[in-house]
Amino acid sequence: MTLSLAGRAAAHVRYVTPGGDPLAVAEFLRTALTNPFNIALLAAGGVGGVAVAAVYLRLRPFQRDLAVFRDTMAGYRDLLPWLLRLSVGLPLVGAGFAGYYFSPAVTLPSPTFVRLFGIAVGFLLLFGFGTRLIAFVGLVGYLGGLAFEPALLLAVEYVPAFAAIALLGGGRPSADHVVSRLADADTVYSRIDPFYRAVAVPFVDRVDPYRALVPVIVRVGLGVSFVYLGITQKLMNPGNATAVVAKYNLTAVVPVSPELWVVGAGVTEAAVGTLLILGAFTRGASAVAFLLFTTTLFGLPDDPVLAHISLFGLASALLVTGAGEWSVDAWLRGRTESAAEWVDRVSERAA
């Protein structure tokens, strides 16, 4: 029930409404959380989520399916740089042509710079040319803008995305991959390229040990984005959030109060973000995040979908990588039998 409440309200509130009447946060939450029906539904959603997790850990169903799924996802790891480049390059090109800076909520007084920056950085990432350098330029551009425009926190997912791309490089297919093959072979190009062996190879050798941090960077960054959006855009901004509910007549979709819509959306986003930060049931939480984005895509016809592609990409990346180290999933993996180990054990017993 909580997910159904949150789905269509999970958009960036400022992207789809010019604003609503200001509401006192304390009064709004008091109204929402003193209603017995609202409390019952929210409690049922929370207890249901905990019960599902407990039953899964106890019974471990669908082990063969999970083993096949994880093995399939692992086969996509070499395409992870391409996935991240597309996820960042496409919205940046769109932002450049539309004239906003990373987030549709932010326009700067220098429209020419904004357009050139978004288009140039976006296209170079799409082509995968000078990928690590361009990712660093993009990160500096975002952080520099954030120092002057706090509204850029609405697009905070660009930080882990740029950091992950800087660690992974262009991957393949990319212009960097083509250039590296030419420079590494006995070609005319390899004799005139002053950059590849002198700079690129030593830098990659130095960065490679940190590639294992990519799943951690992506899930923590995406989790922080979810928590921030759930708290600041929903729970702490009830006026604008209820304006979204009214604009799309969401109470006709699920007949509950506007307060429950807003609180349900905020709590769900914050809960999904917390799971991602902790690295608990990471692929499941990523699938829920993907479902929320997809529901927004089809449920809010005037939502700037292009601005959400980066979030789609990070959630998809976590489906491929899983939680990585320093996570609840890694802790559980060391103490319980994995799906692949279960399949091997069952197969040996059958044999």
From TrEMBL:
Protein name as it appears in the record: DoxX family protein
Segments traversing the membrane: 39-59, 79-102, 114-144, 151-171, 212-231, 270-293, 305-328
Membrane topology, from the record: Multi-pass membrane protein
Keyword terms, alphabetized: Cell membrane, Membrane, Transmembrane, Transmembrane helix
Gene Ontology cellular component terms for the protein in this record: plasma membrane
Locations listed in the record: Cell membrane
A Pfam family matched in the record: DoxX
InterPro entries named in the record: DoxX, DoxX-like_oxidoreductase
Record flagged with keyword Transmembrane helix: yes
